[in-house]
Amino acid sequence: MLFETVSVIPGVFDPYLDASIMGRARRAGIFEFRAHDLRDWTHDRHRTVDDAPFGGGQGMLMKPGPIFEAVEELSSEGPRPHVVFFSPCGARFDQRVAERLAGEERVLLVCGRYEGVDERVYSLADEVLSLGDYVLTGGELAALVVIDAVVRLLPGALGDEASPVDESFSQESGLLEYAQYTRPSTYRGMPVPEVLLSGDHARVDRWRRLSSVERTARWRPDLLEGVDLDEEERRVVEGVALASACDGPGGGVADATPSLG
């Protein structure tokens, strides 16, 4: 799979994509990455990519010309890329979008900057994405988030093929991932749940399901809508709701560790 970015600061990507899991996956050929400098498609000696907005207002807008030329030239080389822009008005990026993008052969991520881009450039986009209801200085961080989320879904990227399947937002259940622990078995008076030390795989699987339910009820109760819960799981949800009511607004955070059997 090939990822490409168009940006005015193309040097920000490689340090992250050459490190850790991303770096190993890149060196193994699981994905390729190319960063393109938008200024390569300018035609003045100052390599200008921005200008003042019509109608006045603060800040500068990215001009349409360099972006159109960049996307059109890159699209003419090899298989046509799936072109993604970033904007607060875009569709929310989530795990389902990441899974869909993982099926693309080539993805071109266009990174805006300054006060935004000329509205006409969105005609080039196959889709426009947003990471959430906040504003970033530029699209480079958003592009890295998308690349990271997609690459880890590619076969061989994580080593353990089951790893992305069990994670939050990837589970068929729609629940958050269960709580996890490692050595030591007791730390500062906080023990690991006994069931995880039992070696009983059936009990562990059941505990993990209940833990997923509890964590989802505690942190993201909105995700429980439409989830099919059995009687025991519903009691877990009710217990979290009761504990939160007793703790008051913001309560329960300090007790986030599941207290399941």
TrEMBL record:
Keywords, comma-separated and alphabetical: Cytoplasm, Methyltransferase, S-adenosyl-L-methionine, Transferase, tRNA processing
Entry EC no(s): 2.1.1.228
Keyword S-adenosyl-L-methionine: yes
Catalytic activity: guanosine(37) in tRNA + S-adenosyl-L-methionine = N(1)-methylguanosine(37) in tRNA + S-adenosyl-L-homocysteine + H(+)
GO biological process assignments: methylation
GO molecular function per UniProt: tRNA (guanine(37)-N1)-methyltransferase activity
Compartments it resides in: Cytoplasm
Primary site of residence: cytoplasm
Binding annotation for S-adenosyl-L-methionine: G112, L131, G132, D133, Y134, V135, L136
Known partners and oligomeric status: Homodimer.
NCBIfam families, alphabetized: PRK00026.1, trmD
Function: Specifically methylates guanosine-37 in various tRNAs.
Family (UniProt): Belongs to the RNA methyltransferase TrmD family.
Protein name per Swiss-Prot or TrEMBL: tRNA (guanine-N(1)-)-methyltransferase
